[in-house]
Amino acid sequence: MIDTLSFVTVYPEVILLAMACVIALFDLAVKDSGRTPTYVLTLFTLAVVAWLQADAASAGHTVYAFDSMVVSDPMGNWLKCFAALALMVTLVYGRAYAATRDMLRGGELFTLSLFALLGMFVMISGNNFLVIYMGIELLTLSSYAMVALRRDHVVATEAAMKYFVLGALASGFLLYGMSMLYGATGSLNMQEVLKAISSGQVQHQVLVFGLVFIVAGLAFKFGVVPFHMWIPDVYQGAPTVVTLMVGGAPKLAAFAVMIRLLVEGMLPLALDWQQMLTVLAVGSLAIGNLAAIAQTNLKRMLAFSTISHMGFVLIGMLAGVVNGDAQGAGNGYSSSMFYVVSYVLTTLASFGIILLLSRDGFESEEIADLAGLNQRSPLYAGVMALCMFSLAGIPPMVGFYAKLAVLQALVAPGDAWHISLAVFAVLMSLIGAFYYLRVVKVMYFDAPKITDKLAAPMDVRAVLSLNGALLLAIGLLPGGLMALCNGAIAQMLAH
Fold it and tell me: Are 326 and 238 in contact (CB under 8 A)?
């Protein structure tokens, strides 16, 4: 029986669902071609939901509801808060872009983005295999539709088809792995699965077989090698505002699902899944950075760079359990959480500049399109330079501290294998610095193709400036965000 506490636990999700339906109906009466009333109502909804999640996270309680199928804890609540804020920023940056490309004929962009966020919330809160799977499906189905939102655009439709086919394959992997674990342990609940695995009575081969499929499904959601080939095609082919929706907030949800499944559900199998993640991380760092060098398309370059950054996130997961000792788990997982949050923050600003440079009938996608940006607008060139420095891991940007935190967690046990992995990651980052600094060189030293000054709406200018300032501010004073991540992960491990 569902008690009232269950609904109290998920009331931000209930509000989000109700408002998504209200906005879909409200939009039918909107005559404004720019969909201003729908846009304002959507931002208001996201702000309220983000505030509710931050409030719940600050309370610091861990509550299980709906027969332990859903969990509300500080880690999940903070990630949901950041996801809602990331979607808000995405819509601020992308509204003008969407309007000039006939993507606002209806309010589908706003309602689909809200349903995608609801999917992320369900993924993050899931304490049961099927709940997590439902969340993933809601997010991915909304994402497929958004990628194909420009109905008359051949490249976007092709990207949506690739995303759909490969996404269906990944969902099948994940579901098959979950069914294997259900067959082995007799439960879909994380705590019950953990108990069954810890008892040692379940056949190890069956568990590992199921684990392989689950890790493969998660690897696709993260876009790590060898499940990465959808990332460059979807990033390049999708409308840029949708690229940011796919490449921003969902990374936070993917991180939460990885923690829920691998740590909360299968920590006794850490030796097995860490070996798998090592292969994925090494491949992602190598292929992501090396392939990015050859790209001339900025969105495609950022897609390959995403693959390498997700490799760094996986490295933090490797630091959790060393030789059966889980002493470094809090340090390792919190550094991964910090990395994901700082990566999403940087991605928002870098794609915000690309969206700003895109004009009616012109996609600013090539690196050469940034030529002489400093002469056209020193502010936006500065923000983009901060993004590139942060992604490259140059101090004092937030990206430098994120990389440092992950590497410190990795070398803390003093194990020779972990130290060699850290050295490899640093070498790959040095290679990565080349293609980021190339963008800075083009902006500051190449002659501009267009000499007119770059103008932006007031809301875009304010949010972009704040976004760029945060990259520097959190890099200089990372203690607050790091403490938040540490506290959230510590509480998750304690339950």
Answer: no
Encode burial over 453-464: b for 16+ CB neighbours within 10 A, e otherwise: ebebeeebeebb
The enclosing H or E element of 71 equals strand 70-72
Helices 74-100 and 479-494 cross at an angle (nearest 10°) of 130
For 104, phi then psi, to 5°, come to -115, 25
Instruction: Give the sign of the dihedral formed by CA 271, CA 261, CA 219, CA 328.
Output: negative
Q: How far is residue 102's CA from residue 159's CA, in Å, rounded to a whole number?
A: 18
CB 411, CB 423: distance < 8 Å: no
List the chain pLDDT tens, one digit each, 495 residues. Answer: 344 467 878 889 999 999 999 999 998 888 877 788 899 999 999 999 999 999 999 888 888 888 889 998 999 999 999 999 999 999 999 888 888 887 887 778 899 999 999 999 999 999 999 999 999 999 999 999 999 888 778 888 888 898 898 888 889 999 999 999 998 888 888 888 888 888 878 788 888 899 999 999 989 888 888 888 888 989 988 888 999 999 889 999 999 999 999 988 888 888 888 899 999 999 999 999 999 998 888 999 999 999 999 999 999 888 877 766 677 788 889 999 999 999 999 999 999 999 988 876 677 788 888 888 888 888 999 999 999 999 998 888 999 999 999 999 899 887 888 899 999 999 999 998 999 999 999 999 888 877 777 778 888 889 999 999 999 999 999 989 999 999 998 888 887
Yes or no: say if 282 and 421 are a contact pair by the CB < 8 Å rule.
yes
Token code pair at residue 475: 């890099």
pTM above 0.90, yes or no: yes
**Token pair 């304490």 in the structure block, residue:** 127
Tell me how crowded residue 153 is: count the other CB atoms within 10 A of its CB. Answer: 18
E strand or H helix at 398, and its extent? helix 398-411
> Rounded to an integer, what distance in angstroms lies between the CA atom of residue 70 and that of residue 66?
6
CB-based burial, 188-221: b 16+ in 10 Å, e otherwise: bbbbebbebbeeeebeeeebeebbbbbbbbbbbb
Query: What is the token pair recorded at 114?
Result: 């809200």
β-strand pairing of 63-65 with 70-72: antiparallel
Sequential DSSP letters for 411-438: HTT--HHHHHHHHHHHHHHHHHHHHHHH
Residue 108 burial class via C-beta count within 10 angstroms: exposed 0-12, middle 13-18, buried 19 and up: middle
Partners of 63 in the β-ladder? 72
How many residues does this entry show for the chain?
Answer: 495
